[in-house]
C-alpha cells in the first residue's frame, strides 16, 4: 500500500487538524482510529479514479471562485 498523503493547509506547514467528532476524547480517538484502519485497508485508486475526482473537485472550486468574483 502506498504511504498516506497529508496535504498541508494552504499557506501552512502541517495538515489541518481533524474535526472533533465526539466531545469525549477517548471516543473521538477511537472513531478516528477506525477511520484510519478503514483507509489503510482500502485499495489504492486507479489513475482514472484520481483523474475523475480531480475533475469533480476542480469544477466545484472553479464555480465557487466564479461566484465570488
Protein architecture, described:
This protein starts with 24 loop residues before the first helix and ends with a helix. The protein has helices at 25-41, 47-68. It has 69 residues and is mainly α. The mean pLDDT is 81. It contains 2 helices and no strands. It is flat and about 40 Å long.
List keywords for this structure.
69 residues; mainly alpha; single chain
DSSP summary, beta strand count: 0
* Quaternary organisation: single chain
Low-confidence stretches: none
Total helical elements: 2
Main β-sheet, in a few words?
A: none
The overall pLDDT average reads 81
What is the terminal-to-terminal distance?
41 Å
Which structural category do the helix and sheet elements fall into? mainly alpha
**Which shape, going by the Cα principal axes?**
flat
Relative helix content: 55-70%
Following the backbone from N to C, one meets helices and strands in this order, namely HH
Rg: 16 Å
Strand percentage lies at under 5%
Task: Break the fold down into its secondary structure elements and pairings.
Blueprint: H1 25-41, H2 47-68
Amino acid at each position: 500500500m502506498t504511504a498516506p498523503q497529508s496535504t498541508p493547509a494552504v499557506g501552512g506547514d502541517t495538515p489541518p487538524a481533524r474535526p472533533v467528532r465526539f466531545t469525549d476524547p477517548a471516543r473521538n480517538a477511537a472513531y478516528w482510529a477506525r477511520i484510519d484502519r478503514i483507509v489503510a485497508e482500502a485499495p489504492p485508486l486507479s489513475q482514472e479514479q484520481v483523474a475523475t475526482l480531480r475533475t469533480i473537485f476542480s469544477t466545484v472550486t472553479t464555480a465557487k471562485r466564479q461566484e465570488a468574483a
